[in-house]
Design brief:
Shape: globular
Radius of gyration: 21 Å
Strand content: 15-25%
Helix content: 40-55%
Number of strands: 6
Number of helices: 7
Oligomer: single chain
Order of helices and strands: HHHHHEHEEEHEE
Length: 197
């Protein structure tokens, strides 16, 4: 059973407050006696709002990657399709496709096929070094690689890094991506497919 919207908002507010408080554990105590600590609170809250805005952009981008229409995104945000697209529709530079022996761009990819594409590329020694909307940039090595996509808000980061996974770039909300070498020799049929060919 889903929580009522007011309960969900309260839970979210508490979680965000706890997150802000965890950045500076001394802040709560200083608010009792130091007027300047309120300026620090404003700074932390403002920076949090900027991060939340970026997370919202990533969430919308991820929804588009998952083929959710601008109409449905606009409805979810309480705005028109056009307003949602104008606010969140960033232009993807699809012409910036790398074609060299050292680096390639896997494009176009969606949330539903990118892991299969990365698995195939990984068998040929290719591994992701960066990514964005609809693409992964990959480079080749002399061994196979495996890739992993996990929820960015999960708490598995330290465990994964302890298991040899290397985080790729920065978080792409709601996903974080990891890669690690397997030590196996590459398969010759695991090269990335050039989508423009």
């Amino acid at each position: 059973m889903n929580e009522e919207p007011a309960q969900t908002d309260d839970s979210l507010r508490r979680a965000l407050s706890d997150a802000i408080a965890s950045v500076d554990p001394t802040l709560a105590g200083r608010l009792e006696h130091e007027p300047d600590s309120y300026l620090h609170l404003i700074d932390l809250t403002s920076r949090s709002a900027e991060e939340i805005a970026q997370l919202l952009q990533f969430a919308v981008t991820s929804a588009r990657q998952a083929s959710v229409s601008w109409e449905r995104i606009g409805q979810q945000l309480g705005m028109s399709r056009q307003a949602a697209q104008q606010r969140f529709g960033r232009v993807l530079d699809s012409t910036d496709v790398h074609h060299s022996d050292e680096k390639r761009r896997l494009f176009p990819l969606t949330a539903f096929d990118e892991m299969d594409a990365l698995a195939e590329a990984g068998r040929g020694g290719w591994h992701s070094i960066s990514y964005g909307m609809y693409f992964h940039d990959v480079i080749q090595s002399n061994e196979q690689w495996e890739h992993l996509r996990v929820a960015a808000f999960g708490s598995s980061r330290h465990r994964l890094e302890g298991e040899g996974w290397q985080r790729i770039g920065t978080m792409w909300f709601p996903w974080a991506y990891y890669a690690r070498p397997t030590g196996k020799p590459i398969e010759t049929d695991g090269a990335p497919v050039d989508p423009t060919a």
